[in-house]
Design a protein that fits this description.
By secondary structure, the chain is mainly α. It is built from 12 helices and no strands. The termini are far apart.
């Protein structure tokens, strides 16, 4: 639990620092990844945010070795509250009333998932069939890249309405969902006795290669999206998609049993369904800025 809360804090702080650094940089794009990397690596603030995210990754490894996947994702989603608070305080971002209701509903979904857990009743799986992992992950990666490309094409339309970034968040969330499953797999490989055996077992699995792909593409895609959209919206959407993907497909892939008790099962299923419904109904566009009223002419009496 302590490691999960630490991961939440580090991830929220890391995203906010990266967003603040990106606002001071020229526009970045996935079509020029080398330029994007050169710009962000020249920003000490961005590097600080990346180090915070890396530390959160290390904490996440500890969580996956001690908690079931569904339980871990339920706790990770709680970091949305801290993220919204930090975005308002450090970035000056404001959420609309509808978005605040949506975040509240997501937290309610989190509470339902947490209430479905019972200490000692949920097992922590350590392995999954590699063909099944690839069957889940490869189409998800393709869908994430395609969705991101579609959002980019719409963003280049000069007459488009300002986007909230929901599409970007879903696309990056799919990549990070695959990454989360890979982290779970890496944590299971690290339980092998002996360093040599652990390394060989890890290299023979698909997990390090999935991490390399999602790390490279996720870095470029998330930075371009984060620069264009509000962190207080795109990160919660991304986090929710990642958590749902990992909790549902990860639980099935790694063979972690669902609750046997009808009430606990209903809470977990209803919490997952509520989170999905919130994502589908979130606003896709920001309100267009109202034109300033014309200045009144001074007349002499």
């Amino acid at each position: 639990m302590a490691a999960a809360l630490l991961a939440n804090t580090l991830y929220s702080l890391g995203f906010v620092l990266e967003k603040r650094a990106l606002t001071a940089l020229p526009e970045v794009t996935i079509r020029r990844p080398a330029r994007l990397l050169r710009l962000v690596l020249g920003s000490p603030l961005w590097i600080g945010g990346s180090l915070a995210l890396a530390a959160g990754f290390a904490a996440q490894l500890v969580v996956y070795r001690t908690l079931p996947i569904a339980a871990a994702q339920g706790i990770f989603v709680s970091g949305l509250v801290l993220l919204v608070l930090l975005s308002a305080r450090l970035l000056g971002e404001e959420t609309s009333g509808r978005e605040r209701y949506a975040l509240g509903a997501i937290l309610l979904a989190l509470l339902m998932v947490v209430l479905s857990l019972r200490e000692g009743a949920d097992t922590v799986s350590q392995d999954a069939p590699y063909p099944l992992i690839l069957l889940v992950c490869v189409p998800s990666l393709a869908a994430g890249v395609w969705l991101y490309g579609s959002a980019e094409r719409r963003a280049r339309n000069r007459h488009r309405r300002p986007t909230t970034g929901v599409e970007y968040g879903v696309a990056v969330g799919l990549l990070y969902g695959v990454s989360s499953l890979a982290i779970k797999g890496v944590s299971s490989r690290l339980t092998t006795d002996g360093v040599g055996g652990a390394v060989l077992g890890l290299l023979a699995s698909p997990y390090p290669y999935l991490l390399l792909f999602t790390g490279a593409f996720g870095l470029v895609m998330s930075q371009a999206a984060l620069q264009r959209c509000r962190a207080s919206l795109i990160v919660p959407v991304c986090t929710t998609v990642t958590s749902l993907f990992t909790a549902v497909l990860g639980t099935l892939s790694f063979g972690e049993a669902l609750p046997d008790e009808p009430l606990r099962l209903a809470l977990r299923v209803a919490g997952t369904a509520l989170a999905v419904a919130v994502l589908l109904t979130m606003p896709k566009h920001d309100a267009s800025p109202r034109p300033s009223p014309p200045a009144k002419e001074l007349t002499s009496s």
